[in-house]
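Reopening this ticket.

The earlier resolution said the output was attached, but the attachment link was broken on my side. Pasting everything inline this time so it's all in one place.
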Amino acid sequence: MGVATGVQGAWIALPDDMRRSIPLWAVATLTIIILVLGMWGRLIDQSKGEKDGGV
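Inline output:
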């Protein structure tokens, strides 16, 4: 979620002339993709180690 917030913050921090060259829908789409991938990464089983959960 921090990266998604950073994308939004960076877009807001851009000067107006640069912000006009990047459409708002592109920034929103990128933010949504980052959030969905982050949720997906939390939901999948990432344990690839030993069966007892050790490192």
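Reporter confirms the inline version is readable. Helices lie at 2-13, 16-21, 24-43. The longest helix spans residues 24-43.
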